[in-house]
Specification:
mainly alpha; 66 residues
Amino acid sequence: MKRLFVLVGILAATGPVGAAELTYTPVNPSFGGNALNSSHLISTANAQRTATATPRPSPNRVTPTT
């Protein structure tokens, strides 16, 4: 009898459950995404490129010694 009350309590507490199909929509307009994202994506890429671009000496370059 106690198990029955526990089972009924669990079923009453969960309530109805619904589910929907997951759909994927790409962000990049080149792959079918929204065309309005293109300016935002290119500005973000340009900002990241300039933020990480640091001049590095070439490993093959010989520095003169005095």
